[in-house]
Amino acid sequence: MTCLICGNPYQSMATWTKIFLYELDSSTCIRCLEKFEISQSTIDFTDFLGTPYEGAVDSVYCLYTYNEAMREYLHQYKFLQDVALAKVFARKLQQAFHTKEGIVVPIPMHPEKLVLRTFAQVDELLNAAQISYQQLLIKTKSETQGKKSKKERLKTTNLFETIQTIEATNYILFDDIYTTGATIHHAAKILKDAGAKRVDAITLIKG
Amino acid sequence: MNEQLQQFLTGRIWLREHTPFPREVIDAHIDSGHIHLKPGITTYSKSNLFWQSNKRVCNRCHNMKPSLFQTFNCARCNKVCTYCRHCIRMGRVSSCSQLLLWDKQHARGANVHVFAWSGQFTAPQQKASEELLSSVEQNQSHLVHAVCGAGKTELLFPAIFASLQAGKRVCVAAPRTDVILELFPRFQKVFPNTAIHALYGSAPDQHGFAELVLATTHQLYRFEQAFDVVFVDEADAFPYHADETLQKAVTKAAKQNAAIHYVTATPTESLKTTNRSILTRRYHGHDLPVPRFDSLWGYARQLNKGKIPHKLQKWINEKIDSKTPFLIFLPTIEVLENFPGDLPRVHAEHPDRKELVLQLREKKIPGLLTTTILERGVTIENVHVAIVGAEQPIFTSSALIQISGRVGRSAQYPNGDIVFFHHGISREMDKAQDAIEGWNRS
User: Fold this and answer.
1) How far apart, in Å, are the Cα atoms of A181 and each of A38, A123, A129, B387?
2) ipTM of the predicted structure?
3) What parts of chain B have a pLDDT lower than 50?
4) Domain range spanning residue B161?
5) Element holding A3 (H helix, E strand)
């Protein structure tokens, strides 16, 4: 096999879980995978206490920290638009979603941004991990969060709207990166206001 | 017609989204027929009664490996799109992207070239240089086969100057960025009036039309039918000889019927040229240091246990005591990273590679552990070299010759220790030793 990241050949181990449990292959060599650092930090929502977003999100789970290897990964995946790299975290994501129950809702991109990027990076991560999801939200504002301060991010009116009816059940939001938490809280509030019982969130990276 | 656009695009094949020109300007030149468009990826379908097979080609890098194409649902064209992963670092080329080529009225250089070189050739250099010049004038491909440290770059100067004066566009390509970075200031001094661009990954923007282009072979993916004369320096270096698309890139960048000339210390059999010159002496006239073989049985196991084999430790201590700078070549990054002790080490992904080599040159550090990344292009005065695991397949005879060529390059220190520590002697090691001894005899 050829590693998706470094392009070097590597041996993919045949394991029982791969044969019988259809475990996904990440198509990445161990050396490259080890460079990603598992996130240990727990996320609290003290920033959102006393704001309208208090209690919108029930829990957030982030898989990895934002380190040098992850910065390079995101550069190639999002900026150079290498869609193939969605497969790198397929197995880890599958395991992460296995432990939670609910309807998976990816954080959407603005339609104009989507045309420029040519693919929705969040949806592709889920596709690669073979996780079924529903697109229940649309993004109404095209500006990016990255260029704004934390205060500005919280002040802006909600970034999302629902496009289908929301049931009184569990939802799991999914995004690529959790930085200040504004995006996830905006999305969770919309779902809660529309009647969701519980909203958890999973992100690939803790920024 | 926009002159800047003409100068920029002449000879290039460029991704539309990445041009530094406004969209309207590009559109106007497409309408006027100055720019010709090519799709990013071409698919050739072959089908018969039972099956259909698609063969895809990236029109920029000419990659055809099926494993390096990825298909996805494209939100830009709303179709299933395919893109090339091989040249993705230069901006993604997909089925719905457009490549721009300049079609009419090619830009030309307007400089009066000056040749400002005051160096002296030795008699064999003079002969090789004249042979190369006559091949270039007759547009016949030429191979300069010169040992490491023979002064290869200088040999090119007269031929390049003659080509420039004849109004030709010249390219000097090398597989490695380090080589281009080293050549650029030298060429600027020798051809002070010539517009020269140095192209490599993360090179700064350079404006205008360059009559002389120094480029890594990778950058030639972005040229098509551009050069009247092409020289490939270090033509045997990784990754050029191993990557077929790089060889195609060189042919593609040259104009049809333009001869391609090669300069190398270790020509591979696949390099076929009409003419050939051989230089077996270093510029200082001394013999090449001949590698000696020394057994280091079971070195891999000892290194795994975190111990440096006794003989190797002794060699290192000797060099440290006599304050001789040394390089130790190791077969893999894993061995390099797990090597016991705190000697500084470099490999391809190492961020301060250049910095550490500089420190070794200035004797701030006693020695350096390295992978084959430093096999060529580095000159360190009075350096001594050891290869650990010289029998491993990564050390081909050409790699071994190149590594041996690091030793004794300066006229003050024409000798030096080059030792192959091995766990059994390989054919490649014998081949390398025979070749070096052969050059010394001739």
Assistant:
1) 19, 19, 24, 53
2) 0.87
3) none
4) 123-279
5) none
CA–CA separation, A102 vs A119, rounded Å?
25
**Alpha carbons B54 and B43: distance in angstroms, whole number:** 6
Query: How many angstroms separate the CA of residue A7 from the nearest CA in chain B?
Result: 10
Cα B342 to Cα B82: distance, rounded to the nearest angstrom: 47
Number of structural domains (chain A) is 1
**Nearest Cα residue to B191 out of B201, B200, B183:** B183
Whether residue A28 is contained in a domain is answered as: no
Cβ-nearest to A119 among B75, B89, B91? B75
pLDDT digits (tens, 9 = 90+) for B50-89: 888 889 999 999 999 998 999 999 999 999 999 999 999 9
Given CB atoms, is B70 within the 8 Å cutoff of chain A? yes
Maximal C-alpha separation, chain B? 76
Does the pLDDT at position A180 exceed 80? yes
Would you state the pLDDT for residue B379?
80
pLDDT, tens digit, 9 for 90 and up, residues A166-179: 889 999 999 999 99
* Residues B315, B378 within the same domain: yes
Look up the domain containing A118 and give its range: 37-206
Residue A15 domain-assigned (yes or no): no
* Pair B275, B298 in one domain: no
Q: What is the CATH number of the domain that holds A99?
A: 3.40.50
Check whether residue B364 and residue B407 sit in a common domain. Answer: yes
* Residue of chain A whose Cα is closest to the Cα of B96: A118
Interface contact B92-A81, CB threshold 8 A: yes
Give the per-residue pLDDT at B347.
84
Looking at the structure, tell me whether residues B320 and B413 fall in a common domain.
Answer: yes
CA B106 to chain centre: 28
Q: Give 3-state DSSP helix, strand, coil % of chain B, rounded to 5.
A: 30, 25, 45
A124 to chain B, any CB pair closer than 8 A? The answer is yes
When CB atoms are compared, the residue of B72, B89, B91 closest to A83 is B72
Angle between helices B123-137 and B152-165 (to 10 degrees): 30
